[in-house]
Structures are given as C-alpha cells and as structure tokens.
Design goal:
Layout (H helix, E strand, L loop, with lengths): L10 E8 L4 E8 L7 E4 L1 E4 L6 H13 L1 E15 L3 E15 L19 E8 H10 L5 H25 L1
Parallel strand pairs: 1-6
Antiparallel strand pairs: 1-2, 1-4, 2-3, 2-7, 5-6
Helix pairs in contact: 2-3
C-alpha cells in the first residue's frame, strides 16, 4: 500500500516508413529535458479515452507528421515503468506513408510554439542511417529507442525471410 504508483496515460510510439522504402520520416528535435542536446525522435502520443491504440497511432502520425499510412504493423505493448506503473506504450511501424491529401499549408506564425525553445524538423533517413543512429544512441528517449530498435529487428527478420524464399 505504501509503494509509489503513477497512474498515467497509455501511449503510442510510431516509426514512419516513407513511400520510398526503406526510408523513414524522423524528427530531429530539441526538448527541454534533453539539456540543450539534439535528438532524433519518432511520432508519439497519448491514447485518448475509448480510443484503440492503432487508431491513436494513425491519428498521431496524421497530426504530427501530416501523413497517411497504408499499413500499421504492431511491434509490441510494453509497461513504461514496471515498478511504478506509468501506463503502457504500444509500439508501431507505419508503412507506405505519404502526404495527406487534405493538408493545408501553414505559415510559421500559425504554428503553436513557433517561438518556443523546442524545435522539431522532419527529415527523411535511409534504413542504414536509422540503424546507425539507434546504435549510436541518438534517439535520446528510451521509448523512441525501443520502438526504432523493434522496427530494425522487424526489417532484419523480413530481409532474412526474403532471402530464404529466393534460395
């Protein structure tokens, strides 16, 4: 009864594959808690009440990256802190993603937090660049690192299976 337990929202994290497979949309960003350092990041967010995790993943990809994705691959569901709760993180790989048709261009003055100390730029990275970045520790948040690592294992397994079929 006296153990610290944090009741927190369940959330999603999504690595986004671009139409030009195998390339990925990754954020290069700064965040307050990163002590002035830049990190690579992926889409993440809170699962709204009564929302399915995959629905939340698609919604967050649309909101944060302005992309629609043909397929969503579930990579796993993990407790954020097994001693204190902190909710569950549902990890995904969004495949064959492209620009939303209904997206209206925005100007810098329209963006929330544009004058903020946090910055976020969406960049396109190759599979080998993402693999090298996760190995180098440039995804500074553990949930991002776990999701990207799981996606890299997915591609490794897929490539291995493709080689077996060809042989």
């Amino acid at each position: 009864d006296d153990w610290l337990w944090i009741d927190y929202h369940n959330r999603i994290n999504v690595l986004i594959e671009a139409d030009s497979t195998p390339h990925f949309w990754i954020f290069r960003q700064t965040k307050y808690a990163l002590e002035g350092r830049e990190s690579l990041a992926i889409v993440g967010g809170i699962i709204e009440p009564n929302e399915l995790p995959e629905t939340a993943a698609r919604r967050e990809v649309a909101e944060e990256a302005h992309l629609d994705c043909a397929d969503i691959v579930f990579l796993g569901r993990y407790r954020t802190d097994v001693n204190r709760g902190m909710g569950w993180t549902h990890t995904y790989l969004a495949k064959r993603c492209s620009k939303r048709e209904d997206e209206q261009p925005t100007t810098a003055q329209d963006e929330v937090g544009v004058h903020d100390a946090e910055r976020q730029d969406l960049v396109l990275m190759s599979l080998s660049d993402v693999r090298n970045a996760v190995r180098a520790g440039t995804f500074l948040e553990i949930q991002w690192t776990a999701t990207v690592s799981l996606a890299m294992l997915y591609y490794e397994q897929k490539n291995s299976a493709d080689r077996s079929v060809r042989n």
